[in-house]
Amino acid sequence: MKKYNFVHAGLLLLPTMLLLAAFTHMPTLKTVWRSFFSIRTNVTGEFTPSNYQFLFEDDVLWQVLSNSFWYMTITVPASIIIALTMAIWVNARLSGRSLLRLAYFTPTVLPMISVANIWLFFYSPEIGLFNSVMGWFGHDGYNWLGDPQTALGSIMLMTVWKEAGFFMIFYLAALQGIRPDLYQAARLEGAGNLTVLWRITLPLLMPTTLFVLVNAVLNAFKMVDHLFILTKGGPNNASNLLLYYIYENAFSFFDTAYAAALTVLLLIILVFLAFIQFGVLERRIHYR
Amino acid sequence: MEKIRKIVMTVCAWFLGLLWIFPLLYALWAAFHSGEYATRFAFDAPITFDNFRTAWNQAPFLRYMINTMVITLMILAVQLVLCTMAGYALARIRFKGRSLLFGLILMQLMVVPEILIVENYQTVASLGLVDTYLSVGLPYFASALGIFLLRQTFMTVPQELENAARIEGCSRLQIIWKVYVPLAQPTYLAFSLVSISYHWNNFLWPLVTTNTENSRPLTVGMAIFGAPESGVDWPVISAGTLISVSLLLVVFLVFQRQFVQSFMSTGIK
Description:
Chain A is an all-alpha fold. Chain A is built from 13 helices and no strands.
């Protein structure tokens, strides 16, 4: 059978590799290629860096990048900290813990689009739930999604709600894998709760944190579904995020060449972030 | 002291839990009451099913649901077959360039199909497949996650089992089917649940590649249904939302334990 190894492996992998080539590898290369041709100047087929020049002149892009940066910098740590807290609570044998786990996890399985419709009502200016509740306390409330000051924050709040339960699951799995005798030993040494958390639990959870972090950062860039329902990137691009901006350019403004340049930018950002995460963090982690 | 700590923790945990489940509970409240109770909570508020009736008549939910089910199951079926083949080849056959291929496959974990919607749309359009089930599935048929998980699982299967099967005269496909597949059942279940919930909820790519009821899944249908232009009121939107999540929610509640365990095991590997 050995002499057929190569043939067998080739046949088994062929469909997968063809599909990946057609929908991952080729599109990546074609995106880079396309980004060097402008449809803006109407001179088709001319190799030009004009899309990249426009990146620097595009004020909206800088707004979008700043939004994406804050969106990531706030939602990723917030969901991770809440997820860890949830996992510790669910793991702590509190009463009704399986119901609790269910409550935390449910937002994860529901479609973003559907739950965004519910949140849209929470945020809506006159009759919305948030403003009604604030009205009970004599506050006028805010135009959550219509005000550039609060739009991005409102989007972030919903994102944290959606993501935390998902990451909790991974922490929960890791917590259940920690050997109980480590805790017993720490207790014998007279370590307090905080010391145990800081010296035992958190260091042992570091591989999980890296895994969750990588996923969370990727999600922060690829999850834009709720923008379609809540703000459509508005008002005045105050809540626009990079992938949504790519979508707008390609499918609303029909500027596929500029969208391609933006996609290349997104890929560069993701590679850069992955490099940081694995390069810097991996060295600080002690695998068991 | 220890007891007080536990009580405080329980209260905090449940407060957060209620906060987390609240949007769903609220949708239930709004959907079963008339519009005037949208922000007024009264125990004697009369329960009504009108909102569901209105929502059901306003959008072709049944069609959307069928589309979502067909798309999700089609993607899962193709993924399971392709991932099994690729996972086995990468785990058990030695050949030149194996790690290079594996690396090329894992690339998809970072360059996810969502990022390449612009170029993939061009591809699908040039194949004349826009607005078909197939077009929604194509970028997802080959799954790096599934291949990775199955490869890891297959590598733990003792080589002796394969050798024994070979002596019995099994061909390679028979070996995969009779030895590896049964032993990897937990991985198949885990990956299936993750894949189903991913594609049931997927939105951006189906939005791009579908444009009529013929192939539009629930998520895209919901986005159109909930758009302010369509002028539906809140209780009706809540009812529509519940209709759209009902099937998945029921499946999730029934298989809750398996769901949670599946998500866990895909993370540990």
